[in-house]
Every structure is written in C-alpha cells, then in structure tokens.
Amino acid sequence: MYSATTQIRVRYGETDQMGVVYHGNYALYFEIARTEALRKLGVTYRSLEDSGIMMPVVSLSMNYKKSAKYDDLLSLQATFPVLPTAKTVIDYIATNEVGEVLCTGQSVLAFIDKSTNRIVRCPNLLLEKFAPYFKNEK
Q1: HSE toward the beta carbon, residue 90, CA cutoff 13 A
Q2: Do 96 and 73 meet the contact criterion of CB atoms below 8 Å apart?
Q3: Residue 56 belongs to domain with CATH number
Q4: Is 16 among the residues known to form the active site?
C-alpha cells in the first residue's frame, strides 16, 4: 500500500452561501491529493502524458461527514491500496486541523494510450515507483 498526505487551506471562493466548502470542491481536493501523491513518488501527470499515457477518472464516490469552512487547513490523504493494473484505485480521506474526518472517497482511474485511446496496463515507470510499497503484499 502506498499513501501520501498533502495540505491545502480552504479559500473563500471554495465556500457556498452557507459558509462551508461547496460539496463539489472535494472532487478537486481529491485530485490535488492524487497528483501530489504521485509527485511524491517522483511521477507527474505531465511525465505520464509525455510518455503517451493518460489517466481518466472512470469512477468517483464521496461520503461527506462534516463541513470544512473558509481558512481551514485540510489534510488530504491519498492511498493506493492495491498495485495498479490497467486501472488504479485510490482511497481518500480529508481531515481538518484537529483530525476530524470531513470527507472520504474513492476513485478509479484507467490507463489509456494517448494515441489510440485504448486501455493499457500500468506503465513500468509507475510500477517501479510503487514496487517498494507493495513488496510484502500478494
């Protein structure tokens, strides 16, 4: 399993009339968590795209527990629970400064060949980066 956490501060424009984070923004927060988790591995979306691989989201679910507010500092954890194949699953947890769970979620992304738009297996570049985190798992 590979997991990484990044932090963001809620901006005023991300809140709604009720003074809480608009629910749709959690999808963006989870995207930030996912891209930063890959970056910490040494892989960027840009490098994958430059190598001809795209990663579209094919499934996204979220469960809201508690509201975040303007200027809250959020911790966004992205966890890759299984080694990627032709798709990858990512679990998310968003917490506030005192550790309360605000939102959980899961996304599934496919690996697509940029030139053919067809599903392919996870590129070796990425599998090599994940390998140390999955060496004791079957």
Answers
A1: 28
A2: yes
A3: 3.10.129.10
A4: yes
Confidence of residue 44 (pLDDT cuts 50, 70, 90): very high
**Which residue is catalytic, options 16, 50, 71, 113?**
16
The answer, yes or no, to whether residue 22 has pLDDT greater than 80, is yes
* Cα distance between residue 131 and residue 19, in whole Å: 43
pLDDT value for 138: 56
Average pLDDT over residues 83-90: 96
- What average pLDDT does the segment 87-113 reach? 98
Domain that holds residue 15: 2-134
On the CB side of 3, CA atoms within 13 Å amount to: 10
Side chain identity at residue 23, one-letter code = H
DSSP codes joined into one string, 12-69: GGGB-TTSBB-TTHHHHHHHHHHHHHHHHHT--HHHHHHTTEE--EEEEEEEE-S--B
Torsion of Cα atoms, 25 then 31 then 36 then 42, to 10°: -170
Q: Quick one: residue 71, left, alpha or beta (phi over 0 = left, psi -120 to 50 = alpha)? A: left
Domain count, the chain: 1
3-state SS, residue 121: coil
